[in-house]
């Protein structure tokens, strides 16, 4: 079983968590200025790197709080977890972080 370190509750089994997608996505300053194609790209197009990647996670069956994690998409190993609003201490492959 994969164990994930919740920054609020400590280490728990993976079945308590849900992934919320890529972390550190900047919202458009003026969403109404985007055409449909640009808005669709913002909502749905995400990087899918092989290697370290920043993701958002929620401790759904625990404290219910959101946090970020740096996960290796090749090995599925969690390198680091940190509270939302903080930055990772590990460099990641994703240029958006």
Structural description of this entry:
The chain is mostly beta strands and 97 residues long. It has a single domain, classed as Folate-binding superfamily (Folate-binding fold), CATH 3.30.2270.10. 9% of the residues lie in helices and 34% in strands. It is built from one helix and six strands. β4 and β5 form a beta hairpin. The model has no long low-confidence stretch (mean pLDDT 90).
**Secondary structure tally, helices:** 1
Strand numbers in spatial order across the main sheet = 3-4-5-6
User: In CATH terms, what is the architecture?
Assistant: 2-Layer Sandwich
| Major sheet | 4 strands, antiparallel
Give the uncertain stretches in residue-range form. none
Question: What is the H-and-E element order?
Answer: EEEHEEE
Count the strands? 6
Overall CATH class: Alpha Beta
What is shown here, in short?
The chain has one helix and six strands; from the N terminus they run βββαβββ.
Feature tags:
97 residues, mainly beta, Folate-binding fold, four-stranded antiparallel β-sheet, 9% helix, 34% strand
Detail the topology: elements first, then pairings.
Elements: E1 3-6, E2 10-13, E3 18-22, H1 36-44, E4 52-58, E5 66-72, E6 78-83
Antiparallel strand pairs: 1-2, 3-4, 4-5, 5-6
